[in-house]
Amino acid sequence: MTSSNSPIQLYNTMSKSKQVFTPLDEKNVRMYVCGPTVYDHAHIGNARPAIVFDVLFRLLRHVYGENHVTYLRNITDVDDKINARAARDFPNLSLNEAIKKLTKTTEQQYQSDMSELGCLEPSGQPRATDHIAEMVTMIEELIAKGHAYEAEGHVLFAVKSYKQDDEVKYGRLARRSLDDMIAGARVEVAPYKRDPMDFVLWKPSDAGLPGWDSPWSKGRPGWHIECSAMSKKYLGEVFDIHGGGIDLSFPHHENELAQSCCANGTEEMAQIWMHNGFLQINGEKMSKSEGNFFTVDELLHTEKFGGQQWPGDVLRVAMLMKSYREPIDFSLGKLEEATKILARWKKSMADLGLSFTEETREEYAGFGPCSKMVAALSNDMNMAGVLAELHRHSKGDRLHNARRLFGSLKLLGVVTFDSMRAWEKIQNTDTTNIDTAPIEMAITSRLTALTEKNWAEADKIRDELAAEGIKLIDGKDPETGARTTTWEVVK
Ligand code: AMP
Ligand code: ZN
After folding, report:
1. Measured from the CB, is residue 36 less than 6 Å from ligand 1?
2. If 0-12 CB within 10 Å is exposed, 13-18 middle and 19+ buried, where does residue 49 land?
3. Ligand 1 midpoint to CA 292 (Å)
4. 34 in ligand 1 pocket by Cβ < 6 Å?
5. Are the C-beta atoms of residues 34 and 227 closer than 8 Å to each other?
6. Which of 77, 135, 378, 422 reaches 20 to 30 Å from 85, CA-CA?
7. How many other C-beta atoms are found inside a 10 Å radius of the C-beta of residue 93?
8. CA-to-CA distance for 212 and 136, rounded, in angstroms?
9. Residues 315, 364: contact at Cβ < 8 Å?
10. Ligand nearest to the CA of 329
């Protein structure tokens, strides 16, 4: 460890307790988090694990060094939901072309959404379709060791084969017995299954559906095997932290655990299993299937929620106001509160004497976080403690407090030097003396780009203006229906 005295403690879903985190290898701390299935825009609930584990990634880099942490987040680009959506959205393309187009654009959108929410790029983002061979190899190993069997072109994992001293170990993460799991789960009944809980490792593809050659059928992998195969390839058979939303703890993580331990002959897959709580809306989990969702893109770039756009840093703060294991209720009030808190932090940095200019860039890069804030973060990411420290510094009366506040907010990924620089420029803008001609010209170019469906160019222009503190408001002429754009200075 380099710069923190308090050890990191994390709540482990497996042991149902908080435990001191000791990496298997301090020089390479390894974390795997289950990532998106790329068939549709990410909703703000999907952003929660991305933000929570990004904060943990940043803390681990702070403690063990930037080059000593490997964070893998996979991209699920083979899935029946993808097949169905691709066929629906691109009926004129061949299914393969449609799938390529859908997964590529959805993945790009995901990356840009997460970056706007202040998330660092993980060390690696492997795609499932690039690792079919590794999955086939692992399935072959499972069959050879008697943990999986072939039936009618399918391969199934035999859950009861995962045992030790005659005791079935399947269910150890969920802490449920097989009987309880069968009663509680929506298990797919199929004549070829030896046990109702046995799950698919490989399934045949009908003509027209994506399929790869394998010893069993031209087919495609089940979902769970991709994480076992890719985490093994990049992080090894046993690694430090495995994360995801609480809905993934069963069956997805239970199945990953069984596959990996059985294929590799290991006791464990990860030292610590971590799960974030749900983001809820009116007390219900936000989800695509319930239709009660707002996409990250909608929140950032449209006025659909609460009649205004919500900047990425506000969304991030709203997400960090509660500890990651608790549910969060997503509401207008929460976003308004986050807006106020963030504005107060930024203002107090300025009031206490920080000024973000080219001359100060290098000096400010050296400002580290408050050690009490790091201690709170190290305590299973105790956000109440983190917020208390941030507030303490924002209410301080010395330059020292401003430096610590900046260092702390930087570690949390809430601000960067450049975001503070842009904010400071806006604060200093005298709106009465703005030269409107270049703004009007940019708006005209953007309207042309929009007419030509050149979304990338239109976004670029909007973002450039935003960096100057000019916010665009799109509308429609009530009579002609033509697109109109007005602008205002954001204070
Ligand atoms: P999915 O694309 O549905 O597999 O979800 C991607 C990630 O988002 C997983 O880690 C899920 O557990 C997580 N997730 C989905 N919905 C929510 C929600 N409402 N709140 C928090 N996490 C969620
Ligand atoms: Zn997974």
Report:
1. yes
2. buried
3. 13
4. yes
5. yes
6. 135
7. 15
8. 10
9. no
10. 1
Q: Is the CB of 278 under 6 A from ligand 1?
A: yes
Secondary structure (DSSP) of 117-178: TTPPPPSB--BGGGGHHHHHHHHHHHHHTTSEEEETTEEEE-GGG-EETTEE-TTTTTT--H
Q: Rounded to the nearest whole angstrom, what is the distance from the C-alpha of residue 74 to the centroid of ligand 2?
A: 8
pLDDT 10s digits, 325-345: 999 999 999 999 999 999 999
pLDDT of residue 431: 67
The structure tokens 């031209």 sit at: 218
What pLDDT is recorded for position 4?
A: 47
Which ligand is the nearest neighbour of the Cα of 51? 1
The number of the ligand 1 atom at minimal distance from the alpha carbon of 280 is 19
Output the six-digit token pair for 323: 């500890």
> Out of 2.60.120, 1.20.58, 1.10.730, 2.60.40, which CATH number does the structure's domain 280-428 have?
1.10.730
The radius of gyration computed from the CA coordinates of the chain, to the nearest angstrom, equals 25
Low-confidence ranges of the chain (pLDDT < 70): 1-5, 430-432, 478, 491
Q: Is the torsion defined by CA of 331, 332, 338, 341 positive or negative?
A: negative
Residue 491 confidence (pLDDT): 57
Closest atom of ligand 1 to 42 CA is 2
| The pLDDT value given to residue 353 | 95
Domains in the chain: boundaries: 9-276, 280-428, 432-489
What is the identity of the amino acid at 265? G
For 126, phi and psi rounded to 5 degrees?
A: -70, 140
Q: How far apart are CA 207 and CA 217, in angstroms?
A: 12
How far is the centre of ligand 1, averaged over its atoms, from the C-alpha of 330 (Å)?
A: 14
Top-level CATH class of 9-276?
alpha beta
